[in-house]
Amino acid sequence: MISFTPFSTLHEAEHEVYNDDEAMDIDDDVQVSKITLPGETITSSQAYMRGHGTYVDNELVIASVAGTIERVNKLVTVRAVSTKYNPEVGDLVVGRITEVQPRRWKVDANSRQDAVLMLSSVNLPGGVQRRKLESDELQMRTFFEEGDLLVAEVQAFFADGAMSLHTRSLKYGKLRNGQLVVIPPILVRRLKSHFTTLPCGVDLILGLNGYIWVSKHVQENEQEGEEGFDAETIYSNRNDPIDESTRSAISRVTNIIRALAAHFVPLTDTLLLEAYEWTVENDIDAKSLLSEDISDALVASIAGGT
Amino acid sequence: MDRRRINGPTEESFVPVFDESPDAWKAADGRKGRGLLDIRPIFLQPGLISQANGSAYIETQKTKIACAVYGPRQSKNTSYSDMGRLNVEVKFTPFSCPRRRAPLRDAEDRSLAVAIHQALASSVRLELLPKSTIDVFITIIECDGLESCVAAGSIAASTALADAGIELFGLVVSCAASLIENQVWLDPTQEEEAVSGGTLVLSCLPALNKITNIWHTGQMSAMDVIRCTEACQQKIEADIHSVVAQALLESAKI
Q1: Residue (of A244, A265, A246) closest to A256 by Cα position
Q2: Residue A29: which domain range?
Q3: CATH number for the domain harbouring residue B62
Q4: How many CB atoms lie within 10 A of CB A59?
Q5: Separation in Å, CA of B156 to nearest CA in chain A
Q6: Which intervals hold domain Exoribonuclease phosphorolytic (chain B) (predicted)?
């Protein structure tokens, strides 16, 4: 009674749909970026392997997200523009505490599930390696409270896919003296170091989950020392005094990041530096960076330079 | 003058001006401005609500709907579930219909939410999202016919899910049809629904040739149901699906 005709290829005029393997063989080296939609047939599953963002039905590889088709040898994946963060072990993430539970904190890290930070994987005050005590369990809120921001590393995964974080390094821990910017995680590339310092007196932490922390620069020698470091400062909720020029530099950098993210420009430290210099040269203040024509001009100038 | 209360107009007041007299139009007059198998032009824009993970706004003349998708995020209830959950919530704005919609006391929104949930549920790959929840919030800003609201709401929600990068088997596209004087009228408005014998909403995945939901109100013979479904299905495949696809492709291109 009700018969559906096969899915007609809708956009043949503007982007050709892959037919089995003939279209796939165009060029092995050149990355052809094609946009696809959920339900659209990409290729046959006998010739290609399905990757993320695809599924197989009737020996056909079909896209399940809207985004660009990417191919590495025989593996076909579809990458969506905005998705949740997919964690991997060793990734640096910035997160926010959402809940305090027995012996653990729950952390929102822009992932599908809340991340877990165990009490045993944070640096406890009063010693480098010391066993956690019952008293530590009772005063967990003195370390991290709901709403606190922290930088951590993905340590492992639980059986249900939730990630476990750790802050057992001097570089990790509670964040203060700065501002958080949220951008699509796809725009943060894996870098040698995700801690960068811009010459304008601003420290950046590029979390791979798309959370970026922009803060006042802290001198190397002023960082809290390893031996017998003082819990007061490392878990403090108080900002240090921040002078006017640093404040404006921080807001300028955050607005640059927002402007670049709005144009889907992947972030790197050199790009940010270039953009910062451009704003100083053209005498643009932090506020006007949010206007559309200035952010367009910014993106055009740095895209032209690279 | 009483300063402690809100006073009415001091001197003059005006007689309220109404849009049109409601009983001016009859089915026998024929359709205003379009053919029986024509739908109202669709404006669809993904990504208008910046704080949501995905969103879409749809407008078909006097039907205006905004949809926001939050998630997948951790379920708040503690019980473990292998499959993700899809929550659909529909809200009417108080000014959406000719008669004021009272928030909370309204029962209509829940039945609409069930219909839209049914339409979407089988398209989302919930088996990939254990312990997670996807929240879909649909706000009906202006309503011109409940059935076409369900259809437009499902389209907006599916677009918003795709915009959020959530894995789907395919896009859900739906269309409403009314049976008026033994003829199929596609995409009926409020006043057309009022005179119709029965109305039907068809939701399907055109890419996979699968029907996800049929929502039927009023009286219709089996043959009429088939006529309505076929008319809807043709319209979905010919026009509506490509509108949705176009909107998504353009937003993905940037």
Answers
A1: A265
A2: 23-80
A3: 3.30.230.70
A4: 9
A5: 15
A6: 39-167, 170-230
Quote the CA–CA distance of B190 and B184 in Å, as a whole number: 15
pLDDT tens-digit readout, A174-231: 898 899 999 888 888 888 888 888 888 889 999 999 999 999 888 765 555 544 455 5
Q: What is the pLDDT of residue A36?
A: 87
Cβ-Cβ contacts under 8 Å for B125 (sequence gap 6 or more): A55, A64, B166, B167, B168, B169
- Is A38's CB within 8 Å of B163's CB? no
Our CA angle for A209, A215, A217, nearest 5°, is: 125
Picking from A56, A80, A104, the residue at the C-terminal end of a domain is: A80
ipTM of the complex: 0.74
- Between chains, do A113 and B253 touch, taking CB under 8 Å as contact? no
Using a CB-CB cut-off of 8 Å, the residues of chain A touching B246 are: 10-11
Chain B residues in contact with A14 (beta carbon < 8 A): 249
Give the closest of B80, B167, B246 to A65, CB-based: B167
Residues in chain B within 8 Å Cβ distance of A61: none
Q: For B165, which of A4, A80, A113 is closest by C-beta distance?
A: A80
Q: What is the rounded distance in angstroms from the CA atom of residue B67 to the CA atom of residue B89?
A: 10
| Count of domains observed in chain A | 2
What CATH number is given to the structural domain containing A48? 2.40.50.100
The verdict on A81 touching B (C-beta cutoff 8 Å) is yes
Q: Are residues A56 and A99 in the same domain?
A: no
* A298 Cβ neighbours under 8 A, 6+ residues apart: A256, A259, A260, A275, A278, A279, A289
A10 close to B (CB below 8 A): yes
